[in-house]
Amino acid sequence: MIAGGMTHFKKINFNDDFRLNVKHSLDYALKDSGMKIGDIEGSVSAYFSDHLQGQLIAGAMSNDFIGLAGKPSKRIEGGGATGGLAFQTAYEEIASGTMDTCLAYGFENMSHVGTWRGNDIIALGSDASFDYPLGGFYTAYYALMATRHMYEFGTTEKQMAMVSVKNHGNAMYNPYAQAPMDITVDDVLKSPVVSSPIKMLDICLMSDGAACAILASEEVAKSYSGKPVLIKSIGSSSDTMRLADRPFGTVPLLPNENPEMYRNLKYPGVHSFRAGRLAAKMAYRKAGISNPQKEIDFAELYDAYTSAEIQAYEDMGFCQYGQGGKFIEDGRSMLDGDIPVNMEGGLQASGHAIGATGIMQAVYAFWQLQGTVHKHLGSNRLQVKNPHMGIIHSHAGTGAYEAVTVMEAV
Amino acid sequence: MGYGKLLKIDPLVVEWNYTTEYRHSYAEDSPFFMELGRGRLLGSRCKSCGFKYGTYRKYCMYCGSETEDMDLPLQGKVHSFTTCYYSGETFRGDVPYTLVLVEFPGIDSLFMSRLFMNHGEKPKIGMDVVAQFKKFQTFTVNDVYFVPA
Ligand SMILES: [Zn+2]
After folding, report:
1. Is residue B61 within 8 angstroms of chain A, CB to CB?
2. What does the pLDDT read at residue B18?
């Protein structure tokens, strides 16, 4: 990866359409890398919902707007993992030798429908026969998972609230963030219950915005002045769309785990995201990571809900299954913890413009590994100290697709 | 899509109504929805590997074989639950409502449904619940719901 950019995520941005948002993020990346649009050989576009866009084939419209008409391009869609998967597809374009430079860009305009209607549209990303008609509400599905996680492992609402406090607090130092907030655990616990146990301040935002990443082959990357970051490996997996269909089997173990740890755990049930674990396992294997707790310096995790961030600590192997609540309680994912998570505020506070989100994570990880957080966010406050390796992670649905990418400073 | 109603200027924003008739076919899942009207809750048993599904499906996701319909026990236990105070626009009039994942004895996977309780009653994991059927079929999955046993 040689450059990245993003727009300031906003609740409503009627001034810029999706094309202009893409252009703003791209102009930043081009300027940062000293590239010109003509240097880019092709693109991968990422956006989740044709309903939210009110426009089909919106990728092609973005392409001609930014000056990529006449070059190869495709759209990737995979729910909340859309951006993460598109980033991986751009990697594949380079790794396969198809292109020497490839632009991955993502966008979403979530404000063009009301929040309740937006919930409806997002819930069409659940089984339209068996799930959607029960309430049309994604928060409910995550809440069902959170309830079970609490039952299995003793995770508490207070621990969930700590994630919210961390992510909103981190965002205070991120000028790109939509909802920086200096809040307390009590504020989160007292915010209105949306779908028990999930409360208003446990939930990510609906955003308008765009993000982009420019990827290049090793040789080409060297010819640009900036400091490239290596995309070390990609991993992805999938699971049943319906929560009700999830099996009760055994944990796919990471190299630093053993079956004794999980003798009585029926997995994944609805307490954990099997696709996240499998995606991480694939990415770690390809990157030669045998102990993620020791080798990974930070992570951008998919915190659509605070419970999901806690679940992801476990899925990614940052701690054992069941220890995710303790992981935040012990401060291990805080800025000064041993594996800081969502240093810029995550989906909770930086924002969630669905198609842009996975690429937003890549841009943040890129700046962290470059050591250029001060340059892009205006201060060093959120810079992880000398990071060597980081991961980005996103999911679709309740983990129907998941994408994990390992990035490394070189 | 239709003609725009002026919402604001600078930038110019118009609002249009965006609705459509949509013919949703239950296709191979039709028996499940039809039988709800007869007070039967169907699951599926794989003819080849024997996996018993708590949510109807015509083909086994483990071995690809065709499944056969089976009656699920009407009584089960709450595997997980949530009470929703917000929802999608379509279900705005329904809040608050409670969703449960139900586990049935001897069945290998779950079923998602609504749980109705008396005022003051609280859902709990492990709670016994029993299926009820709507008198007038809506031909949706809401034709079955659960109440405390
Ligand atoms: Zn089978």
Report:
1. yes
2. 80
